[in-house]
Specification:
Helix content: 25-40%
Largest sheet: 6 strands, parallel
Number of strands: 6
Order of helices and strands: HEHEHEHEHEEHHHH
Structural class: alpha/beta
Distance between the termini: 50 Å
Length: 245
């Protein structure tokens, strides 16, 4: 008995599983009812000094985000162990991971030290897993990057943070902030002085809020991938689980 011929809806794409192929549509991007809660932001900074300029800049960013309608949490990296030196259930690790899952957007702010971000900054990002089971806690979330420098303006740290944001599958906004000679930009009370640097921070936070409001309701669809639809949740967890490396 001859089997009935099955028509291929994608004859020009023989390697594609037609049942899992998606044609992106505006309707699916805008089909969800918009969330009404305040956008949620986690802010990370990369220095433990008493007068940490990356912390002071992060606090300014948090004030701006709150004024723009956002809800903010700033993670204190003091007491966070080095990656792989403590179990995943360490209280500071769990605090950081819980905040990463809670957030819809993030701000990463690092000093530039020896031409790169600090180890304190990198350690925080390294403790945020690419996956928890088959769930990627940072995927599809927005990100703004900033840095402070003790000398002339530089962009080494923000460039590295952008690479990490892409690796964590985040939507890094186009704008960024780099504050040169940061010790001159804050007053005795730790507040940032009026300047073009401050206005750039306002621009960056405004852009972050806009991108977050624009994408958060569609984040799941934006990062839905054909290759991952072809895998089961178990297979995906095995492939992306960093503990298996």
């Amino acid at each position: 008995m001859r089997r009935a011929a099955v028509s291929n809806p994608l004859p020009e794409l023989p390697n594609i599983d037609a049942a899992l192929f998606d044609r992106p549509s505006l309707e699916r991007l805008s089909g969800n009812a918009p969330a009404r809660h305040a956008p949620r932001f986690l802010l990370l900074y990369g220095s433990l000094r008493d007068r940490s300029y990356s912390r002071l800049l992060t606090e300014e960013a948090a004030r701006l985000l709150q004024a723009m309608g956002g809800e903010t949490r700033i993670f204190d990296p003091a007491g966070l162990p080095l990656p792989d030196s403590a179990p995943d259930d360490h209280p500071k690790v769990q605090e950081l991971r819980d905040l990463a899952q809670w957030a819809e957007g993030m701000v990463w702010c690092s000093p530039e030290r020896h031409g790169s971000m600090t180890g304190i900054m990198k350690a925080q990002i390294d403790w945020i897993p690419l996956s928890i089971g088959a769930v990627r806690p940072t995927q599809g979330k927005t990100l703004a990057v900033m840095q402070v420098s003790g000398g002339s303006q530089s962009f080494n740290a923000v460039n590295q943070l952008r690479v990490l944001g892409r690796w964590m599958r985040m939507l890094t906004i186009p704008n960024q902030s780099s504050v040169a000679k940061a010790f001159l930009e804050f007053d005795e009370a730790g507040r940032m002085k009026p300047s073009s640097y401050y206005e750039r921070v306002v621009d960056v936070m405004e852009e972050l809020v806009k991108f977050t409001l624009l994408t958060r309701d569609a984040a799941g669809y934006l990062v839905d991938r054909y290759s991952e639809r072809r895998e089961s949740a178990d297979e995906l967890a095995k492939r992306v689980n960093q503990r298996a490396i």
